[in-house]
Design brief:
This protein has 431 residues and is an alpha/beta fold. The chain is built from 13 helices and 25 strands. It has 2 domains: 216 residues, UDP-n-acetylglucosamine1-carboxyvinyl-transferase, Chain (Alpha-beta prism), CATH 3.65.10; 208 residues, UDP-n-acetylglucosamine1-carboxyvinyl-transferase, Chain (Alpha-beta prism). The longest helix is centred in the first third of the chain and has 13 residues. Bound molecules: shikimate-3-phosphate. Shikimate-3-phosphate (S3P) binds next to helix 6. The site of shikimate-3-phosphate has 11 residues, from helix 6.
Length: 431
């Protein structure tokens, strides 16, 4: 198990390229596999999460050729997947397992989906229940709430599902299942979650309707392959955005970042806290907004975040806690109880680990209270096997008075291979 030692240093300077968007890569791989013909996906995320989805699709009979910066997927059409000879291991990825379960529920064969210890402890009832309402036959541990999941493909019927949770993973599992269902499938959620699946449906020419936070799709519509471009992952960029904001005299350029408004909560919140974030060269790529970011150090102040801001910022709370720790004044987060069922319980993990660095942070059932502005001390921290916790603590460590050791950092590979090297490069540029 590897560990990372962060020696306090700064400023961060230069240009850094981050991996392709993880959410978009999962969807690009899955929809290209279901399309008729060959697609090339440029800029895909080579993190382990997406590579696990890629290899699951290969086991489902889809030829995929891998190159460093692009993959070629030979789509076999809506009904072209074949029964895998072994369980599909989704590793650490909730997105991979939940979206693939949606696809596999409507097939004519049997599949088992599983993952690592973290994924096997995360709630799956949230997708199993709506899929069962469509006629899916899915079994799993704890009455179907925990993976491994055994899916006996069956003829699905469209349904009208109102989700109690705003979640793009639930929405996407249901909409993907809807492609194989008889009739119309409708999904509604309280607040809009990220809409990458809908945007990619549009890009591939799959018709659907949107009405507020409800989407309707009709099953059985085949679609043609298309080449796709995946922008850089804003959730990966967020570590350098906060790093450049809090480490004095920094200036970092991050080109080619996905700026889907359902994902840009962290930019809005940091800007409101006083961050200096410039967006250049805004454009559209494969149906997603993209731009180049330039971040310069700026004094931050505390802020109050409520439930309505949570979906657009959901994966950025670990690094947001670090920004709050370095901001002057009090920050509160409420309505973020979903953080307790991510790769780890991120509320507990961030509160426990930042306290070790002398941050005044207290957890609440659905968020945090951070009293910012105290000097950070180095410490010995744990990642809990969660990539975003590991990277957030690494950025906090840059501003501490002594080195910080983070244990169990192999998990960074799930989304951001090369993270530490890129961080060191930005620090070296300042010499
Ligand atoms: C994702 C959706 C979010 C997010 C996850 C990726 C996706 O999860 O936290 O990292 O790609 O659909 P939820 O949909 O469960 O909120």
């Amino acid at each position: 198990m590897s560990s990372l030692t962060i020696t306090p240093k700064g400023p961060l300077r230069g240009t850094v390229h981050v991996p392709g968007d993880k959410s978009i890569t999962h969807r690009a791989l899955i929809l290209s596999a279901l399309a008729e013909g060959d697609s090339t996906i440029r800029g895909y995320c080579r993190g382990e999460d997406c590579l696990n989805t890629l290899s699951a699709l290969q086991k489902l009979g889809i030829p995929i050729e891998i190159e460093p910066d692009q993959v070629h997927v030979s789509g076999k059409g809506l009904w072209g997947l074949t029964e895998p000879a072994e369980p599909l291991d989704c590793g650490n990825s909730g997105t991979g397992l939940r979206l693939l379960t949606g696809v596999l529920a409507g097939q004519q064969f049997f599949t088992v989906l599983t993952g690592d210890a973290s994924l096997r402890s995360r709630p799956m009832g949230r997708i199993v229940k709506p899929l069962q309402l469509m006629g899916a036959h899915i079994q799993g541990r704890k009455g179907g709430n925990l993976a491994p999941l055994a899916v006996t493909g069956s003829r699905l019927k469209g349904s009208d599902y109102v989700s109690p949770v705003s979640s793009a993973q639930i929405k996407s599992a249901v909409l993907l299942a809807g492609l194989f269902a008889e009739g119309e499938t409708r999904f509604s959620e309280p607040l809009q979650s990220r809409d990458h699946t809908e945007r990619m449906f549009r890009f591939f020419g799959i018709p659907f309707d949107v009405e507020g936070n409800s989407i309707r799709v009709t099953g059985g519509q085949s679609f043609q392959a298309k080449d796709l471009f995946v922008p850089g992952d804003l959730s990966a960029a967020a570590f350098f955005i906060v790093g450049a904001s809090i480490v004095p005299d920094s200036e970092v350029r991050i080109p080619n970042i996905g700026l889907n408004p359902a994902r840009t909560g962290i930019l809005d919140i940091l800007t409101e806290m006083g961050a200096n974030i410039q967006i250049d060269n805004q454009r559209d790529e494969s149906g997603e907004p993209v731009g180049d970011l330039v971040i310069r150090t700026a004094p931050l102040h505390g802020i109050a975040i409520g439930a309505s801001q949570v979906p657009t910022t959901i994966d950025e709370f670990p690094i947001f806690c670090v920004a709050a720790a370095l901001a002057q004044g009090k920050t509160t987060v409420t309505g973020a109880e979903e953080l307790r069922v991510k790769e780890t319980d991120r509320i507990q993990a961030m509160a426990t680990e930042l306290k070790k660095l002398n941050v005044a942070i207290e957890e609440t059932p659905d968020g945090f209270v951070v009293q910012g502005g105290s000097s950070l001390q180095g410490g010995h921290c744990q990642s809990y096997g969660d990539h975003r916790v590991a990277m957030a603590i690494a950025i906090a460590g840059l501003t501490a008075e002594s080195p910080t050791v983070i244990d169990d950092t192999d998990c960074i590979e799930t989304s951001f291979p090369g993270f530490h090297g890129k961080l060191l490069e930005l620090l070296t540029n300042s010499n």
